[in-house]
Amino acid sequence: xxxxxxxxxxxxxxxxxxxxxxxxxxTINTVPKDALIAFNEQGKVNNSLENDxxxxxxx
Length: 59
Prior knowledge:
Oligomer: single chain
Shape: globular
Low-confidence stretches: none
Mean pLDDT: 82
Strand order of the largest sheet: 1-2
Structural class: mainly alpha
Radius of gyration: 11 Å
Helix content: 25-40%
Number of strands: 2
């Protein structure tokens, strides 16, 4: 699955909100460079989609 341009545009949200929420095996996420840098600095890697599929919409 390919997630395209998942950078956060809403200033009230975390810079890595959508990146963290869409982590799963066999996925590709294209993100703006600034979002990638933010994720490298503060992001948490876990299998969000498989572990918490139903609440992804709520994040």
